Amino acid sequence: MSDIQSTIEELREKVRALTTELSSYKVESRSVDHSAIVQSRQKIEKMSAEVVDSNPYSRLMALKRMGIVKDYEKIREKTVAVVGVGGVGSVVAEMLTRCAIGKLLLFDYDKVELANMNRLFYQPHQSGLSKVEAAKDTLVHINPDVAIETHNYNITTVENFNKFVDRIRHGSLTGGKVDLVLSCVDNFEARMTVNTACNEENQVWMESGVSENAVSGHIQYIEPGRTACFACVPPLVVASNIDEKTLKREGVCAASLPTTMAVVAGFLVQNTLKYLLNFGDVSMYVGYNALVDFFPRQEMKPNDQCDDRFCRQRQKEYQAKKASEVVEIPAATKEEEIVHEDNSWGIELVDESKVEEKTTVVGNGLEYAYELPKQNQEVDIEPAESEEKSKTSMQDLASLMSQLKGMSTSTKGDTVVRKKRTLQDREKKKVRKNSDSKEHKDDLRDLKTVQRKKEPDEYDYDSSDEEDLRNTIGNIPVNWYDEETHIGYDQQGEKIAKPKKKTEIDVFLEKMEDPDYWRKVFDRQSGTDVVLTDEQVEKLNNLASGKYPVVGYNPYEPFLDIFSSEKTIHPIDNRPEPKSRFIPSRDEMRIVSRMVHAIKMGWSKGPKQKPQKKVYDLWAAEDSMDNKTKSEIARMRMHIPAPKMPLPVHAESYNPPEEYLFDEEEKRKWEEAEPEDRQLQFVPQKYDALRKVPQYNKFLTERFERCLDLYLAPRKIKMKLQVDPSELLPDLPNPNDLRPFPTTLAFIDKGIRDGNLRALTSLQYMRGHVGQVRSVSVEPDRGELLVSGGEDGTVRFWMMDSGRCIKTYKVAGPVISVAFCPVGSKSLVAVAYEGRQISIFNTNCGDKLICSQTEEFIREVPIEESDGKVNWRRIKDRIVLEMPNEVRKVVWHAKGDYLASVAVDDIATSVYIHQMSRARSQCPFTKRKGHVQSVAFHPSLPRLFVATKIHVRVYDLARCQLVKKCITGIKHIGAMVPDVQGENLFVGGLDRKFVWLDLQLSSKPWKSFKHHGSAIRGVAYHKRYPLLATVSDDGTA
User: Fold this and answer.
1) Are strands 973-978 and 984-989 parallel, antiparallel or unpaired?
2) In a 3-state reduction of DSSP, which class is residue 216?
3) What is the chain's mean pLDDT, rounded?
4) Is it the case that residue 262 has pLDDT exceeding 60?
5) Catalytic residue among 184, 229, 232, 253
6) Start and end of every BOP1 N-terminal domain (predicted)?
7) Are strands 898-903 and 887-892 parallel, antiparallel or unpaired?
8) Core-most of 84, 467, 562, 578, by most CB within 10 Å?
9) Is 719 helix (H, G, I), strand (E, B) or coil?
């Protein structure tokens, strides 16, 4: 099975690889087939202004020659990021490429579709490719000098957003920030993502958009802190009552016109060039309405209560920067004259101060229709002539106004205007004939009055609901204009002034005097009161009362039964049946004969029987055992049904016998008892009729407890093992196989020899100390001597074979720790006692030669005065170390030259290492790694074991680094000792746990034991035999 499975996996991997290779081959074949026919040019390192046909930058460099742009070559150093390579973004990328931008960063995650061909510059053969790759393939052939970087991912996700911000921060040609970000996306979420990234990075960006009806658009310049960001106020051109998510659904799409998108893209690129090359004025906001060719412009200030915290931070930074700037008044300079290099047309500058003689002759055979007046020449016009000319000009102006108004009206309006224009022409002719008479002057005045009082045409505005609104701000909150002096813009782009607010007195007077006050509604968008008509009031009343809103609608119209309304004895149509219905039809006979012949020849096939619809039995597999797994079958066999509720007893009857009713004493005991101790959870009651039984108030509680029993009390068959507990104990090995180990006491008191076994509990060996014995140490070389230290301040040496005290030394305080030097050639003992001191002296016991050599060694120790924390002093036959803290324990190195001490306090300098041959002390640790409990030297390597409360750390003293950190699993370590080779470490804890650590195997315990009932105080390992001993507070070893 494993071979078959591996073969299947290999085949799947091959199929995936072939599929990937095929898709890449298709993409390459598309790009190769269609790009091979495109003629590409070599890259141009430097832009040139040479006017030749082979220079693609000659027309662009002409802007510099004409003085419009100071240094157009800087555009090769600029980097622009275009987010969204759709209808607007693709045109923007193409324009910037043709303008020789330095680097383009394209962001989009969509693919090219055939539905995009009406507005994008992609080609049908690029369908299926990502937009950024298709755009790069096209733009590279337009201008190979432009560096194009593509990113095919959605920037609105968290991971891709970080990538997007990183490319804004490091995406330029020099590895720094990009110069400008252009947002050409078509959804609100992506715009907010670009807004957040640019506010966070303090990046200038421009936003663009086209409405869903494709007849309006806008661009907006956004500089964080200076102008309003997208979170402060969205653009004024928004979708008209169309949700953005609705447009993305299947079957619903927005309209698109390449003309509108090209206009918006042109505005966007034009302002981009002005910003990058520093010429002209960059527009803060430019709108575009294709229906009336209207271009509104407006500056948008930032909102100090913006939801984006980075926007608020940038505003504070801009205000602080603006306050710190020093305003300098520029000196008046003389405007330089523009001198053109090419003057092939012979243009000359004319001095306007000179008076030029004007002639009436234009050319050969051409003259002016009237003579132009000379400069400073007064023109004398007679009063009558001037009055007539003024009348004529007024009439011509009125005629011109009527013509202009007639051009914008519909067919019906044109007819009305033509009729009025005919009447006006007749009146004008009449006025011209009688211009000198006063009567005709009055008629002309009346005509002007009629023209001024002309009623507006009914076709000046459309009658639809959306177009009838005079305020064209769109579907945005009106409270955005609370701080402005206007409430919006009309169809001509003029501001609509806010109406004057009414005082309470005005409202009261209007309520008292205006009979239609109750039907007025204030329209916030137009700022006026709208009077509801009777029909609208009736509709509102119908809606409030739950009726149909249509006035006069009757949903229960009477049903008129045409046929059965009047009962008759004859049928409606009593004509006899025609004869043709009783004669066999010849046409049917021919059809039947053809069918019979087709059946005989086997041509005709009957209708296919429809397969019966299969009904899936949801519970069919519950009873069958075919598709069950072993675990399911075992679970079904082990299933135990829920226990049923107990049947009701006589006490639960509504009319129980008298012996089931409680008396006063039983009721009192029932109330005092705990609920779980009661036999009955209710008090039996007696009713003479079932209809008098009230509602049981504990019904829901009992049902709930029953559900809890079924849910929280699972049922399971548990097999009880019939096993003898003694059989579970492991077989103990034969004690003879574990020899050698101690079996008898070295010496016994006389009471034991005489058979007084009761004295065993109070037996004390090696008597001599007064008080508690705190530390003992055995001579490591021969094992003949035992040194002990007690709280009486004495250090005693004992003979192991007889228990006799052979030497006693007195120290300045209670002894805490004693330790024999492990080297047999030195009879040294280190004693730590209270008073923060350590004494190292000669035992003067044993071999006299060794004792004399040890005494000579103590005299030769080079003790010098030092300013360190440990002070070395020689006092008679001993060396005293004055420590900075109380010492808990002293430990010798295997070579006998080094001595380690552990302090009681939990500080960083609790461990010191002392060298006897040089009389020096040093602290190996500068940082606190835990409360040190014990230390031990490695028997052969320069390593130090440091035990804290729960860990054991192994340090290399030669390289001064941590080698291993062992996890003991003990809550508080009490003792620690390594074996002779240093490969194993034995640790005892105050929580009764003893662990065995194999340092070569793992950093965790190899074995763990709990043989003692109290804390383990000491651990010892035999130097020649594989024996280990532990000592506990419970008196056992």
Assistant:
1) antiparallel
2) strand
3) 79
4) yes
5) 253
6) 481-742
7) antiparallel
8) 84
9) coil
What amino acid is encoded at 481 in this protein? Y
Judge if pTM exceeds 0.70. no
Dihedral of the CA atoms 907, 909, 913, 916 (nearest 10)? Answer: -120
pLDDT value at 494 more than 90: no
Q: Which residues have a Cβ under 8 Å from the Cβ of 338 and sit 6 or more positions away?
A: 67
The two three-digit tokens of residue 400, written as one number: 């011109």
Evaluate whether 790 touches 798 at the Cβ level (below 8 Å).
Answer: no
- CA-to-CA distance for 210 and 254, rounded, in angstroms? 10
Query: What residue segments make up the domains of the chain, in order of their start?
Result: 71-320, 478-537, 729-928, 936-1037
How many angstroms separate the CA atoms of 722 and 735, rounded?
32
Q: Are strands 79-83 and 180-183 parallel, antiparallel or unpaired?
A: parallel
Q: Collapsing DSSP states into helix, strand and coil, what is residue 735?
A: helix
Helices and strands, counts by H and E, the chain: 21, 36
Q: Are 955 and 970 in contact (CB under 8 A)?
A: no
Q: How many angstroms separate the CA atoms of 69 and 64, rounded?
A: 5
pLDDT at 251: 47
Q: What is the pLDDT of residues 748-776, one digit of tens each?
A: 554 444 444 444 444 446 788 888 888 99
Establish whether domains 729-928 and 936-1037 are of one fold: no
C-alpha 397/C-alpha 419 separation (Å) is 18
Residue-wise pLDDT for 80-124, tens only, equals 999 998 888 889 998 999 898 989 999 998 888 877 776 667 778
Provide the token pair at 480. Answer: 């955005």
SS (H, E, C) 235-268: CCCCCCCCCHHHHCCCCCCCCCCHHHHHHHHHHH
CATH domain 936-1037 topology: Lipocalin (2.40.128)
The rounded distance, in Å, linking the Cα atoms of 965 and 321 is 56
- How many other C-beta atoms are found inside a 10 Å radius of the C-beta of residue 353? 5
Count of residues in the chain:
1037
Q: Which fold has domain 729-928?
A: Methylamine Dehydrogenase; Chain H (2.130.10)
- At 963, the amino acid letter reads V
Q: Report which secondary-structure segment, H or E, holds 802.
A: none
Cβ(953)–Cβ(943) under 8 Å?
Answer: no
Residue 349, sorted as left (phi over 0), alpha (psi -120 to 50) or beta, turns out to be beta
pLDDT of 914: 92
Q: How many CA atoms does the CB half-sphere of 15 hold within 13 Å? A: 6
- Residue 902, H or E segment: strand 898-903
- Nearest alpha-carbon partner for 264 in 184, 179, 189, 205: 184
DSSP character string of 371-437: PPPPTT------HHHHHHHHHHHHHHHHHHHHHHHHHTS-HHHHHHHHHHHHHHHHHHHHHHHTTTS
Question: Domain 71-320: which topology?
Answer: Rossmann fold (3.40.50)
Q: Are 876 and 865 in contact (CB under 8 A)?
A: no
Residue 123 phi/psi, 5-degree rounding, is: -115, 155
- Residue 1017 has φ and ψ, to the nearest 5°, of -100, -25
> What is the residue-wise DSSP string for 110-157?
-B--GGGTTTSS--GGGTTSBHHHHHHHHHHHH-TTSEEEEE-S-TTS
User: Ramachandran region of residue 1024, left (φ > 0), alpha (ψ -120 to 50) or beta?
Assistant: alpha
- DSSP line for 36-77: TTS------SS------TT-TTHHHHHHHHTTS-S-GGGGGG
Q: Cα 410 vs. chain centroid, distance in angstroms? A: 56
* Residue 22, φ and ψ in degrees, nearest 5: -65, -45
**Residue indicated by tokens 């157009």:** 72
Distance from C-alpha of 399 to C-alpha of 427, rounded to nearest angstrom? 12
- The tokens of 858 are what? 């103590």
For the question of residue 923 being annotated catalytic, the response is no
Q: Which of 1009, 999, 933, 1005 is nearest to 972 (CA)?
A: 933
Confidence label for 253 from pLDDT (cuts 50, 70 and 90): low
